[in-house]
Amino acid sequence: MIRVLLADDQSLVRAGFRALLDAQPDIEVAAEAADGAEAVRRIRELRPDVVLMDIRMPELDGLAATRRVTADPGLGGVKVVMLTTFELDEYVFEAIRSGASGFLVKDTEPEELLRAVRAVVAGDALLSPSVTRRLISEFASRSKEPAAAGALDRLTEREREVMALVGMGLSNEEIARRLVVSPLTAKTHVSRTMVKLGARDRAQLVVLAYESGLVRPGWLG
């Protein structure tokens, strides 16, 4: 059973998400929170699998709340997905840097929300497919000068190649087709790369791909 915590200051939004999620046989809403501070308290208490976190909330916004969650070693298994009204919210880029596993727009289709929750738990998710490449492209244009790539020395040549493709927004299936390997092999390479670099999830792997200079703006085509 996938346990979800809903953090949003709008009760109507929480009620809508709860109705959708609780109707699934493999998902349950463990708790709700109306502000960021309450969300952090409830997350530490309940340790849910996934947190759907609104970016703009009173007391403590979703970005600050996410930083507290991802900085807590005891909450390493908690995946945070940011919720935003706009596809390219100004805070999304910093949220990904802060450890969020991705983001969804609030008006996303119900099927996409369910797919995202399940995928994040499985470790396969990055962002909403409809905006993944747009977000990565925007992130790339805002990124600073590449940092030293010393951390990549521990990767094999194939792992570097896979990391670059992840940084370009490709899914495991797309990586498999590009490299002519099975999706399971592609997923294994991605997982090993994350472990070697200490990346929390694919989202942070994308950040590292740009910050190390492995992928650069303009490569998306």
UniProtKB/TrEMBL annotation:
<protein>
    <submittedName>
        <fullName>Response regulator</fullName>
    </submittedName>
</protein>
<keyword id="KW-0804">Transcription</keyword>
<dbReference type="Pfam" id="PF00196">
    <property type="entry name" value="GerE"/>
</dbReference>
<dbReference type="InterPro" id="IPR000792">
    <property type="entry name" value="Tscrpt_reg_LuxR_C"/>
</dbReference>
<dbReference type="Pfam" id="PF00072">
    <property type="entry name" value="Response_reg"/>
</dbReference>
<dbReference type="InterPro" id="IPR011006">
    <property type="entry name" value="CheY-like_superfamily"/>
</dbReference>
<feature type="modified residue" description="4-aspartylphosphate">
    <location>
        <position position="54"/>
    </location>
</feature>
<dbReference type="InterPro" id="IPR058245">
    <property type="entry name" value="NreC/VraR/RcsB-like_REC"/>
</dbReference>
<dbReference type="InterPro" id="IPR001789">
    <property type="entry name" value="Sig_transdc_resp-reg_receiver"/>
</dbReference>
<keyword id="KW-0805">Transcription regulation</keyword>
<feature type="domain" description="Response regulatory">
    <location>
        <begin position="3"/>
        <end position="121"/>
    </location>
</feature>
<dbReference type="InterPro" id="IPR016032">
    <property type="entry name" value="Sig_transdc_resp-reg_C-effctor"/>
</dbReference>
<keyword id="KW-0238">DNA-binding</keyword>
<keyword id="KW-0597">Phosphoprotein</keyword>
<dbReference type="InterPro" id="IPR039420">
    <property type="entry name" value="WalR-like"/>
</dbReference>
<feature type="domain" description="HTH luxR-type">
    <location>
        <begin position="148"/>
        <end position="213"/>
    </location>
</feature>
